[in-house]
Amino acid sequence: MIDIPLVYKLLKEQHPDLADLPIQFVDAGLDNAMFRLGDRLSIRLPRREIAAKLIENEQTWLPIIADRLPISIPNPYRIGQPNQDYPYRWSVLPWLDGIPADQEEPDPNQAKILATFLRSLHIPAPDNAPENIFRSVPLTQRAAVIEERMQRLELQTELITSDIKQAWQMALNAPIDVEATWIHGDLHSRNILVKSGAIAGIIDWGDITSGDIATDLASIWMLFGDLDARQQAIATYANISEATLQRANGWAIAFGVMLLDLGLTNDPRYTVMGKRALQRVTEDI
User: Fold this and answer.
1) What is the pTM of this model?
2) How far apart are CA 273 and CA 110, in angstroms?
3) Which residue stretches, if any, does this entry annotate as coiled coil (predicted)?
4) 118 and 14 inside one domain
5) Based on the domain organization, do 110 and 170 belong to the same domain?
6) How many domains are contained in the chain?
7) pLDDT tens digits for range 200-212
8) What is the dihedral of CA 120, 124, 126, 127, to 10 degrees?
């Protein structure tokens, strides 16, 4: 069980100078448990083995990319090691203040900020960048899984429209006409923090990998309900080919389908996120 007594014990043993700070439970998702540590720090502990590998990705690569990004990210402050009480590596991180963007949408003027952030992130990654069988692959390799969910959702909702199906097929047929770069890989609205309308942080970097920029560009439809804001993000990023825009639509559909399907069986927050993504893609095509 990952609880406050365990966190205190780990700190006391490995980072005793932090052990006297107050510890507050924040949230526990499928992959990680999060605690606040004092006013300025947080602690993130994996809940399962697959998540432990993602934490290691963050610990290895975020210190390398953090300085060039114009939005705060949870660059590890300290790293915890596995021991007899807990089997995985864990992180002490800066506390990033804000509300997930699925609960507080950023102001439309933040579209330029997001695009600038993505431009700063999207540079070629080294050869030893982490592989990700879900995000670093062409969209066509995810088609079977997504289309199976689309068929299920078509029976449960009215969101899998003919326009969505057509945009999906166009995305699958669009060539990849850009070189692979660093991508966040999971840039949905729950992983973007907003404070007073401004994007305050980008979190949950476990899926970081080298892949198609269209995977991250899909965040435009997951983040902004305002059509002009979406167009501004695309214009500010600049030099997005028609093929890349089609693939970005496809990734937005893929994320929307995955989130909606997850939400209908698990968490209503994901239902809303998936619905918004699909509706916004429909508005733009």
Assistant:
1) 0.95
2) 19
3) none
4) no
5) yes
6) 2
7) 999 999 999 999 9
8) 150
